[in-house]
Sequence to fold (838 residues):
Amino acid sequence: MTAASFAVRSGGTRQLAGTATLLRFALRRDRVMIPVWVAVDALMVLSMPNTLKGLYGTQAQRDDLLHQMTTNSSLRALVGPVFDDSLGALTAWRVGVYAGALAAVMSLLVVVRHTRDEEESGRQELVSSGMVGRRAPLTAGLLAAAVANGVLALLVAGGMASHGGTGAVALGLGIAGVGMVFATMTAIVAQLTESARLARGLTAAVLGAAFVLRAAGDSATDDGSSVLTWLSPIGWLENLRPYAGERWWVLLLFVAAALIQGAIAYELAGRRDLGMSFLPTRPGPATGSLGTAGALAWRLQRGGVLGWSVGFFLAGVVYGGLTDGAADLVGDNDNAREIFERMGGKSGITDSFLASMVGMLGLVAALYVVASVLRLHGEETSGRAEPLLANAVSRMRWAAGHLTVAFGGSVLIMLLAGLGFAASYGKEVGPVMGACLVQVAAIWVIGGAAVLLYGVAPRLAPAAWGVAGAVLLIGWVGPALDVPQAVLDVSPFGHLPKLPGGSMQWPPVLVLLALAVVLTAAGLAGLRRRDMTT
Amino acid sequence: MTKAISVSGLHKSFGRTHALDGLDLEVETGEVHGFLGPNGAGKSTTIRVLLGLLRADAGAAQVLGRDPWKDAVEVHRRIAYVPGDVTLWRNLSGGEVIDLYGRLRGGLDAARRAELIERFELDPTKKGRTYSKGNRQKVALVAAFASDVDLLILDEPTSGLDPLMEEVFQRCVEEERERGRTVLLSSHILSEVEELCDRVSIIRKGQTVESGSLADLRHLTRTSVSAELAGAPNGLAHLPGVHDLDVQGKRVRLQVDTDKLDAVLRQLSESGVRSLTSTPPTLEELFLRHYQEEAPQGAEVASR
Fold:
């Protein structure tokens, strides 16, 4: 090859040099993570038609469902409008939005992992000193996400084909589309901040906002035509209308958004220095007031606690605002009115709506407690714990600092969710607060399990995410899937009294609290005895 | 004199790897003790045991007269530790970390803190990730030297410092010695060890192979001699302790065990010495000799 032809060749592609190698490397590193995410997401969709057949087997049941969804804005806010009554359409309605959200979470994790995480850890520096173009790591990260979303789309389209090929393709592409919109959005956010943790948090906040926008839009209209719905990429999936007269042009929205966001990320990635960001780090104080391990733990986690607090308060406000609408159902539907009046008057439907919303927030709070407990693990593996523990700080003190934030923070965010309900719903303040606090018992059990894993088997500590994920899946889709009771009983949330509305039962709550204490104590005993890993 | 650190027969395994295999270490109070060995010899493992971060499988360890595992917090109150690879919290400034570490030890001397920041030319307002490797080490070093403690454990503390800062570091260690503090210094920079250390311990494959003052250790090694003689040399090859003898006409080069030097000189002067250079063993030679013995197995341990 002559020097001139080499120059021409490298001139066009040098920014992407090494992408193929990096992609193979990324897929190798994610050989467990991506398949698990894809499998869980696909299974969630593919198991749905059978379940729905059981729930809405007769035409009368389906008519009733359609009627409810058209007339009840609160229910629409939760699960979106129904566009048709075929099994395919019902599946797309029931899980499409959640499957898209899962794909978004997977994509954001994959992209951050191969871009900002690598830079923050310093590993990228070594990699980029090789024959690796400036934009190759970002390209490889996005391609890894594209591969994951592509496989997911294929699985969904293939698995749903028996209910109608066209709809199956639309659903698969829509889910993958949401994934790719968030993959490219993550790519932008990863350019803006130096911290991988912050990049994940910010993108997750955007995802949460997309969820809320869709919910608000769907509560306003019964056909997904609200501007708010169209502002949310998750709403696009709904408006693609798989199995209900597919509107293929909506796919162009996904493509356009992904392309525009990708282009912005590329532009940013090509301009900035390695490891640097567009949100510069400001200098800090020359002297500090931190004097204890507990104060340090709070300082390190307070940003996270603040984010979760705001999120939970807003979620409380949104769901509290929908509560009154939930009772409308009773006014519109004679059958339902009879049922709910028998169950305990008009407050019955409101209370069960409140109970399910509070329960859902409790499940999400399990993610908070796991993230917070695992800060211990992060501090240890990063090497920051070692010099800290070489000071006059016992391991128990050190752990106690982070665990106080984890367990105390769970109480705080549930209280704030309750305040949110109180602010927008305004009735039953006491019972709703109580319901929020009762969730803490189950949240703490998950936290205790994380402490146990970390203390006894630090290498398995990340499995605590699996515990929280399993509990979430059981809580969200378990009841609808006719899963055996034994499986449902695994989740501590299944044992909580149904509040408000139900009667407070102390025994299960106290048992859960005791279990949380035992798990935590066992984990701490393990931590006290074992070697610190470095 | 009491012992600041006293370790005997220390064993520690990670799975099938024996990181420490009966290691001994004695550090007198008030001395600067060099802790040397090839990569993977077990230096950092030993230090982590001394800090109570790892529990020894067997053997006895005492730090400042206490058990580092059971009395970790009490021991740590009087210890300052600087790891070789300092990681800081991204959102905490260097100054905040220095003060935190000071408070978590026996306390911080504010005047000394200010003076050290000046001498190390450290900007304490920068935040965690924006520091270079050398500057992260300076943060830990300032925190250690400004703390009110009796024992400093420094694990390759200068690997990222420039020569100027290396100079400042050495001055600081000397000041610590003058104040009567004890320093355990693990280092690969031999000039630094030679400059600072009263005594050294050399370990290999988890065992102590040599311990003593540098003068003692030198005595155990070879001196290089090269001489130009009036006549042809004779009898040198039969002298005990002579190695690598190279005779070219009237010129002689050889290595001799330092305690056998006298006999060699006498033999040389019999042939009439025109010129003579005698080079004492450098520290490098001293260590290379220890490091290289049984190199293949050493490499295996190092690759762990």
Summary: The mean pLDDT of chain A is 87. The radius of gyration of chain A is 24 Å. DSSP finds 25 helices and no strands in chain A. Chain A touches chain B at residues 120, 194-195, 275, 281-293, 296, 299-300, 303, 382-384, 386-395, 529, 531-532, 534 (CB under 8 Å).
